[in-house]
Backbone:
């Protein structure tokens, strides 16, 4: 059975990390796969997924705390806060660190707290625009037979 030589794996992984770092969109494995195929035409989705997980496990990248939908990856491994659009699942970085005093919470008996993960939930500008267009007031104006 053919296996990848370690050097080749490393080169591939570097290309993957490079693609991941270029995007600020927190892509899914599928999205990274579609982008990276221009540079690595023979790579499989499975290999992309495995390598993304490896990059996250080694701390070079991070997996976003799971929300709805497929897992999303971030080429920026530094701790930072995300906002997720409730309509389309799009994720963006939030500047600054919201103040959460997790020292003030009382953990269940036997638990120790090391930190916290926080994700803000909202609506992205694209979905907000789409919603405005679809609102009944606007529809009345836009329907051609009502003009
Ligand atoms: Zn959205
Ligand atoms: Zn991020």
Residues:
């Amino acid at each position: 059975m053919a296996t990848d030589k370690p050097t080749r794996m490393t080169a591939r992984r570097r290309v993957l990390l490079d693609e991941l770092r270029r995007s600020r969109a927190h892509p899914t494995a599928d999205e990274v796969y579609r982008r990276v195929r221009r540079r690595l035409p023979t790579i499989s989705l499975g290999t992309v997924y495995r390598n993304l997980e490896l990059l996250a496990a080694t701390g070079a990248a991070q997996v976003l705390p799971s929300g709805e939908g497929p897992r999303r990856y971030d080429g920026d491994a530094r701790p930072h806060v995300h906002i997720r659009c409730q309509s389309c699942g799009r994720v963006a970085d939030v500047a600054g660190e919201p103040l959460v005093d997790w020292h003030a919470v009382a953990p269940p008996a036997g638990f120790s707290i090391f930190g916290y993960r926080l994700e803000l939930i909202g609506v992205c500008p694209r979905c907000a625009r789409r919603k405005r267009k679809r609102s009944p007031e606007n529809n009345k104006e836009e329907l051609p037979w009502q003009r």
